[in-house]
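Risk mitigation, structural track. In case the binding assays with nicotinamide-adenine-dinucleotide fail to produce interpretable data, a predicted complex structure has been prepared as a fallback.
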Amino acid sequence: MKRILITGGAGFLGSHLCDRFIKEGYHVIAMDNLITGDIDNIQHLMPHENFEFYHHDVTKFVHVSGQLDYILHFASPASPIDYLKIPIQTLKVGAMGTHNLLGLAKDKGARILIASTSEIYGDPLVHPQSEEYYGNVNTIGPRGVYDEAKRYMESITMAYHRFHGVETRIVRIFNTYGPRMRLNDGRVIPAFIGQALRGEDLTVFGDGAQTRSFCFIDDQVEGIYRLLLSDYTMPVNIGNPHEITIRDFAEEIIKLTGTDQKVIYKPLPKDDPQQRQPNITKAKEILGWEPKVSRSEGMKKTYDYFRNLPTEKLFKKEHRDFSSRNKK
Ligand code: NAD
Ligand code: UDP
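Fallback model:
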């Protein structure tokens, strides 16, 4: 039986990857320090004989006993609100965490796939973004802690590949959504749905002319799965090219939820990318992958998940207290 380590396994993407690899017959070890994740995301897997959970911070030395065939490194705060609150942790998990996991991959002879992001393109001057574009990133801006950590992550991964011959894969993930996103992580989809369900106005940042292209989780997991098992070592964009402005998206949410909320406008956060759309030619040609789930279908499933959450989760204004983490 193949054994796979999934870091960030209690998070949104990580927990769906745990489900997928259990379904494929792997032995899955999920590793997470729960800083932005939720143990509820993997509670259903706990009784499974091929599933283990290690509560561990990957910026500290990572030990896994026995054979390891694959590593998926997904541990990292991922929402702008989260990584602005824990900037040092974000840099450390991208840098030291990735270094530890590459060392583990080398030691075990495991193949490692790292979760990079469209953020490495920064506020892109090229549209849509293909893997050849080097990006437009403000190193010292508020988003720099995430963007540069991810860029370093790609660099050290390629160095381990070239210098040590480690089998590496790099996925550049574009905005992905679905059930198990944290309601209060500040990302636009849980933010808008939460506001609609609580009867609050929808907060569009800036004039809402900025664009994003949203990929449903099932499509994302399929792309990552195919990339891991492929022979391709260079970065691959995985995302849905169907682009929409945030203003139009707010209107879509109002229609979907059947509420009569207003849209209100708040200041645009610094360095918020103006446009984002993946060029997925490589994913199509190399992996035979393209997204299958339309935004209306994916958003309906996502809305169903959020509206069935217990009321206390919906109304609890969760402000994670990261203060003790920041001292570490
Ligand atoms: P998430 O916050 O739900 O999951 C991240 C998980 O990593 C959490 O469970 C968190 O507790 C864990 N974690 C963070 N630091 C850790 C540490 N030092 N040690 C152990 N665990 C730690 O976010 P997500 O959306 O599931 O993102 C997962 C990965 O995918 C991240 O690397 C993120 O950068 C990448 N990504 C996600 C998106 C997206 O749209 N969801 C887009 C681009 C890239
Ligand atoms: N956004 C918004 N209102 C919110 C949350 C986000 O208008 O309540 C905007 C945000 O400024 C950005 C887009 O939605 O332009 C996507 O934000 P998100 O945090 O989901 O991800 P990003 O792609 O910026 O990392």
